[in-house]
């Protein structure tokens, strides 16, 4: 491994988790805050039903985000491996390739969305009161796709180079810009949903531009870089092989969300759809905190697994699961004890509050088990087992939640029975993930400690 990475094999694992986790946690909380605080701005500055319209578009925006992660996560992993082999030319070629891929994919997504906007909205169920709101939002939001993708990519590349502060700052800056512009456009300029969407584009435009400038400075500052850099098919394959699990997760979540929205459109009033959209924004923030532990754990596991330091791999897993579970317990307690107080920040509508309170409790009652579910998929990604990581990424939304949302409404006309799918899915997913992780870790040979 490259000398600059040796600290991953010598520094205390607990210290690494705390240091990496702090930066990753701040970044992910900032990302989650865009969703939750953005929903708060929309609910207070426009109306609570506008949040429901954004919820209806969630399956589509998840696909956009999934393609961004495909390139960002895949590029970060590929660049890390090239730096570890001291192949700086290839790493820089990978940066150029990744940006080209982001632009090509983003441009394609924009074109397809604008071309099929009307049938897409109808397909997603944006009818009735939600039609105009969703159409206005999507028409502007679509132009934020390339800037969001390049912001995520810049942050991921800085993380691959070990520039954790820069990686965090790009994401935090993006969140502050998006929310700040959102507030001004909604409350001061009364731009409505078009202003909400425009804030995403403008905020990410600024943060992605800064990311490019800082990356150019980083590349120029590297010595012994050959002038001939390549846009290579092997690099694209290397990026896609790792990033595909992130895309698979996004597509499976999108599929589940679409089927769920369709089911609710047929069986439930608009208040339930709005309640779900509000709850999902809150839960998303909590999910991002545990994903922060995933980001912190991955480089530690990757380095030490490759180096054969299996005892340190186990320690990394242990600390990651401990801290992620601690976050999960806090989330579960908040959801069970204070759901009404949390949700009242967004709306005072009693009908929406009652529905949202029950949905939030169902989603968070076993939230503390998310640590096992998500960290197991990340563990297999870190040790290079992409197929197992992909399986674990799509297992819950595609193989558990999706069948449940199709089956449960057939068993009862009571829509509240449907929300039991969340604790059922969490239980089954945790058992499967825990079993697979236990047997994988059990096979690791323990090397004597060398630190």
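Q: What amino acid sequence fits the structure above?
A:
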């Amino acid at each position: 491994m490259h000398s600059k990475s040796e600290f991953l094999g010598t520094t205390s694992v607990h210290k690494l988790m705390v240091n990496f986790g702090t930066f990753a946690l701040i970044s992910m909380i900032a990302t989650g805050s865009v969703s939750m605080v953005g929903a708060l701005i929309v609910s207070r500055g426009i109306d609570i039903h506008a949040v429901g319209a954004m919820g209806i578009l969630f399956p589509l925006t998840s696909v956009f985000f999934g393609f961004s992660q495909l390139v960002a996560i895949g590029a970060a992993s590929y660049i890390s491996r090239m730096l570890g082999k001291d192949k700086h030319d290839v790493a820089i070629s990978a940066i150029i390739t990744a940006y080209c891929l982001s632009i090509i994919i983003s441009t394609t997504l924009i074109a397809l969305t604008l071309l099929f906007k009307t049938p897409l909205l109808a397909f997603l169920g944006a009818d009735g009161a939600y039609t105009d709101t969703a159409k206005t939002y999507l028409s502007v939001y679509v132009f934020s796709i390339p800037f969001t993708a390049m912001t995520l990519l810049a942050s991921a590349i800085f993380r691959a180079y070990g520039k954790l502060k820069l990686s965090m700052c790009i994401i935090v800056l993006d969140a502050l810009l998006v929310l700040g512009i959102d507030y001004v456009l909604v409350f001061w300029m009364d731009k409505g949903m078009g202003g909400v969407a425009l804030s995403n584009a403008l905020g990410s435009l600024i943060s992605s531009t800064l990311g490019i400038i800082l990356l150019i400075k980083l590349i120029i500052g590297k010595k012994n870089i050959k002038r001939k850099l390549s846009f290579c098919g092997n690099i694209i394959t290397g990026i896609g092989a790792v990033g595909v699990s992130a895309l698979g997760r996004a597509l499976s979540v999108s599929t589940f969300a679409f089927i769920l929205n369709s089911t609710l459109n047929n069986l439930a009033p608009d208040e339930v759809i709005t309640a779900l959209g509000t709850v999902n924004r809150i839960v998303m923030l909590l999910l991002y905190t545990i994903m922060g532990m995933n980001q912190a754990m991955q480089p530690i596991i990757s380095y030490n697994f490759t180096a054969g330091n299996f005892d340190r791999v186990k320690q990394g897993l242990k600390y990651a699961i401990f801290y992620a579970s601690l976050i999960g317990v806090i989330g579960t307690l908040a959801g069970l004890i204070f759901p009404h107080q949390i949700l009242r920040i967004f709306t005072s509508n009693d009908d929406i509050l009652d529905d949202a309170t029950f949905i939030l409790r169902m989603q968070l009652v076993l939230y503390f088990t998310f640590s096992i579910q998500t960290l197991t998929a990340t563990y297999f990604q870190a040790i290079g087992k992409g197929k197992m990581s992909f399986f674990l990424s799509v297992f819950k939304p595609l193989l558990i939640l999706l069948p449940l949302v199709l089956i449960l409404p057939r068993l009862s006309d009571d829509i509240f029975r449907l929300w039991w799918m969340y604790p059922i899915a969490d239980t089954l997913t945790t058992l499967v993930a825990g079993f697979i992780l236990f047997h994988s870790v059990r096979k690791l040979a323990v090397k004597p400690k060398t630190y």
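Q: And what stands out in the fold?
A: The chain has one domain: 3-442.
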